[in-house]
Design a protein that fits this description.
- This protein has about 375 residues and is an alpha/beta fold.
- The chain is about 40% helix and about 15% strand.
- The protein contains ten helices and 15 strands.
- The strands form four sheets. Strands 3-2-1-4-5-6-11 form a seven-stranded parallel beta sheet, with helices on both faces. Strands 8-15-14-13 form a four-stranded mixed beta sheet. It has a two-stranded parallel ribbon with strand order 7-10.
- β13 and β14 form a beta hairpin.
- The protein binds NADP nicotinamide-adenine-dinucleotide phosphate and guanosine-5'-diphosphate-alpha-D-mannose.
- The site of NADP nicotinamide-adenine-dinucleotide phosphate has 25 residues, from α1 and β5.
């Protein structure tokens, strides 16, 4: 069994965890994921994998050292992908202590779980680091040598994760690395991140299910890539001959406004922008109706507004192609997915309504 590849993924139910599971299973890995107990069984992103022979789930929590020590000891992983996090920047202002516990101390708990089980020579560790470390950016574009200036409780917690990974690499000679990933999106993206919020709203507005989309800072610039392309890089980082940190980005930047314009275009609505700041509006050229407006509710106490990654090192040393999926393709595939989802949800709710009617009439017992 010495050469068997066994991966343990924390955050397996998340956007990246689900794509990474598929990727590693396709490479013949035995894949283990940790899940938390929840009062509702919400594992939509990995439901299609459950029952697959090489795919196993275990209860544990990033806030519970003992559970992590036990699962690492039981699984004996050759690779750990630490993706679990309270990953929403805005939420980290509301729950800063929880965010620090999971996103900072959680990383330490994983490292110590590996040491406690004496796996430090055989288990490689990937840490899901982030472009949010650059925060109030000190240069553009950002690369592996750009100074960090975290600008939210989330980013400060992730900075601890970055440094503790580096510390264990140097102190204990462990193969542990951080991928400094810029924003990556997909049809599985959480619905409160700006891209998915936009693609879902564009689909709903196009199908007459919503009147207006409210957003925050439309000028914010992001380097958006496709999550499915990025999980390959996580794996490549752990296959490299030496443990190093890498920036993963497309090298192309767009504003939130540009994302919205293109998303609405794919949903069949051409937007015209009028006004400035809080008074800016996106107007449907055909109907003259306001379909996008700005709300202060979505402004952050401190906002990161200029992320732009330089993926040169990953390109050269890992042979990774940052433009596998372009920005235009990403927006198109997300809108296409959400147009179908909104239509299907509508059909499902019609069935549901009929069922309710039948129940009321006593036709279904
Ligand atoms: P996501 O969809 O929000 O998934 C987060 C995962 O972490 C979920 O599986 C969640 O489980 C799990 N989790 C949260 N708290 C936990 C706890 N206390 N114990 C165990 N599991 C817990 O995030 P993502 O977009 O896939 O991102 C994956 C990682 O990359 C995160 O660490 C994120 O900070 C980082 N990152 C993301 C991006 C991006 O653009 N997506 C960019 C840079 C870095 P539940 O399902 O139970 O909530
Ligand atoms: N969520 C959200 N909702 N963001 C909005 C909105 C809105 O209505 N309107 C404007 N924005 C702006 C935010 O202020 C931010 O500048 C930008 O859109 C992107 O916000 P998010 O999509 O929430 O992502 P993020 O960049 O804050 O964080 C994501 O990417 C990081 C990597 O840079 C998350 O995935 C983090 O986990 C990840 O580390």
């Amino acid at each position: 069994m010495a050469n068997k590849n066994i991966a343990l993924i924390t955050g397996v139910t998340g956007q990246d965890g689900s794509y990474l599971s598929e990727f590693l299973l396709s490479k013949g890995y035995e894949v283990h994921g940790i899940i938390r107990r929840s009062s509702v069984d919400y594992r939509e992103r990995i439901a299609h994998l459950e029952g697959t022979p090489n795919f196993h789930l275990h209860y544990a929590d990033m806030g519970d050292s003992m559970s992590l020590v036990k699962v690492v000891g039981k699984v004996q992983p050759t690779e750990i992908y630490n993706l679990a996090a309270q990953s929403h920047v805005q939420v980290s202002f509301d729950s800063p202590e929880f965010t620090a516990d999971v996103d900072a101390t959680g990383v330490l708990r994983i490292l110590e779980a590996v040491r406690t089980n004496h796996l430090e020579k055989t288990c490689r560790i990937y840490q899901a680091s982030t472009s949010e470390l650059y925060g109030k950016v000190e240069e553009v574009p950002q690369n592996e040598n750009t100074p960090f200036h975290p600008y939210s409780p989330y980013a400060v917690a992730k900075l601890y994760g970055f440094w503790i990974i580096k510390e264990y690499r140097e102190a204990y000679n462990m193969f542990c690395c951080s991928g400094i990933l810029f924003n990556h999106e997909s049809e599985r993206r959480g619905e409160t991140f700006v891209t998915r919020k936009i693609t879902l709203a564009a689909a709903r507005i196009a199908q007459g299910k919503q009147d207006c989309l409210y957003l925050g800072n439309l000028d914010s610039l992001r380097d958006w890539g496709y999550a499915k392309d990025y999980v390959e890089c996580m794996w490549l980082i752990l296959q490299h001959d030496k443990p190093e940190d890498f920036v993963i980005a497309t090298g192309v930047q767009h504003t939130v406004r540009e994302f919205a314009t293109l998303a609405f275009h794919h949903a069949g609505i051409e937007l015209r922008w009028e006004g400035e700041g809080i008074n800016e509006k996106g107007i449907d050229v055909k109907t003259g109706r306001t379909v996008v407006a700005v709300s202060e509710d979505f402004y952050r106490p401190t906002d990161v507004v200029n992320l732009w990654g330089d993926p040169t090192k990953a390109k050269k040393e890992l042979g990774w192609n940052p433009q596998t999926t372009t920005f235009e393709q990403l927006v198109a595939l997300m809108v296409e997915h959400d147009m179908k989802k909104v239509a299907a949800d509508e059909a499902a709710s019609r069935v549901h309504t009929n069922l309710a009617e039948y129940l009321e009439k006593g036709l279904v017992k």
